[in-house]
Amino acid sequence: MNRILLSLLTGLLLSTTVFAQQPDKPNILWIVSEDNSPFLGCYGDTFATTPNLDNLARQGILYKNAFATAPVCAPSRNTLITGMYPPSLGTEHMRSTYPVPDFVRFFPRYFREAGYYTTNNAKKDYNTTDQPEAWDESSVKATYKNRRPGQPFFAVFNLNVSHESIIHTPIPNDQLKHDPEKVPLPPYHPQTPEMKHDWAQYYDKVEEMDRQAGALLEELAKEGLAENTIVFYYSDNGGVLGRSKRFMYESGLRVPLIIRFPEKYAALAPAKAGTVTDRMVTFNDFAPSMLSLADIKIPAYMQGKAFLGKQQVRERDYAYGFRGRMDERTDFSRTVRDKKYRYIRNYMPHRIYAQHLEYLWKAPSMPSWETEFKAGRLNDTQMKFWQEKPAEELFDTEKDPHNIHNLADDPKFRSVLLRLREANHKWLIESADVGFIPEAMLSTIAETTTLHAYAASGKYELKKVIETAEMASSRDPSTLPEIIKRLSDKDAVVRYWAVIGTVILKEAATPAKAKLNNLLSDPEISVRIAAAEALLNLGETEKPVQTLSEALKSKNRMARVQALNVLEKIGDKARPSYDNVRSLLVSEPKDGDYDVRAAKQVLQQIEK
């Protein structure tokens, strides 16, 4: 007992000594809003009502070029908490809980070990197995006020009032503060009453978010901590109406970022108060930058680059981003952004942008947009969302902030296209991107090892896989002979992407028909499903639908989701699979029941 008491007393004395010896350690406060692009007055939005954040910008540094790595919360938050790029970890898909290597720690744990009090209020959603030891407190009641006297803190407050879900239930027009008839719509949105209402209601919620942020800042000042605390405000991804959140444009990836340094820590600030900077910053850079501010050594495994503190490095040239599966819908894209141009590579260009996604369609604006499409009342810009994607997209973000003029085929921008295409390719290799593994395979691999370890094991032929995926997504018929050759490759991931190439080429892939029929018996279920999709494009029905229907009995949920995504496209032709689809509707879908959500949509298509 005496030894225990002595140990506790020694720990307390050491702890007190740590705090006494660290008067220069700054407190760090994160105010994180959800699902909003820079819809703030300080970013030039004259329709927004955001006095508190506008004032914070006058007191701090406003970043023009801050980017989420993913246009949706869970993969984006995975980046923030790990300092790693999710396609390197296998945590890119929305949502998933694939494990990360033991050496990857949620970065607040390093703060705790350095004597900080760490709190999270309250959202986590880190897209992997939780690490609760990262926090002293994580709950709706978590607060820095519970720390010991003199103890520095790292505190996160998540404001969910601007989350996508807030527009699912319309507020009566006469209760809105922002006038739907005056709200500025982006050119890709039709002027439907529902669209205007959703936008106005969203601006109201951004105003409320600003009020809540102001209350947190006021509380900090009342506690006498404003002069000892570096304050960050940012959003977890862009948003929130259709073609923003979940999509690879500025509207989905560019986020507001404001950082206020008190005078005491002015030496840590990269510029004076009231400065607007064009420095490129991504969520990959946040974890190392926080550690740098607290003078904690940055772990070598982190892929981000510190842009603040003593360990900051040269500004990055490019901001990288990604999109994988979004809930029940399979898709796959990568993007590179420099200070002027955004390049997007769509590896599944045969998937239309507007794949029906249950949660997204809960916003009244989405069905109204679809209604206008079906009625033929959309202009060319508004129509593109309902069409297949090009393999490559290139936008001048200065002249075209809404990303509606694709320059990828313009000869004047050929050099820009080639430069950013090469930057994307190099990063896929450097980051060991495991996202090219179809998720049915990926989920099986994750049962026995981390995907990061698998990528380093020598079993993943990354360069050949990426080469095949780039060839497959190019829509170039001249690649068909090589694609047909790779349909017989020993690597299932290479075979999968070769089949995707035939899916994309549609009727032009007719010479591959015999091999595709053979692949209906491939040992890898992802390849069988893809082959069925290709054969459906070539006019076959019975065997492909039978293959897809059998896939619905698989224990692999991601295989079921893949098959359902194909069945949903073929309407009444999917009828032979009806019983197997219906068997998936055991209950209302919960988080993660993406096969159930997809099955509901397939049945709606069959039963029309």
TrEMBL record:
InterPro entries: Alkaline_phosphatase_core_sf, ARM-like, ARM-type_fold, Sulfatase, Sulfatase_CS, Sulfatase_N. CDD domains: SGSH. The keyword Metal-binding applies. GO terms for molecular function: arylsulfatase activity; metal ion binding; transferase activity. It comes from Dyadobacter flavalbus. Residues 1-20 form the signal peptide. Residues 26-296 form the Sulfatase N-terminal domain. This is Sulfatase-like hydrolase/transferase. Belongs to the sulfatase family. Keywords: Calcium, Hydrolase, Metal-binding, Signal, Transferase. It comes from the Bacteria.
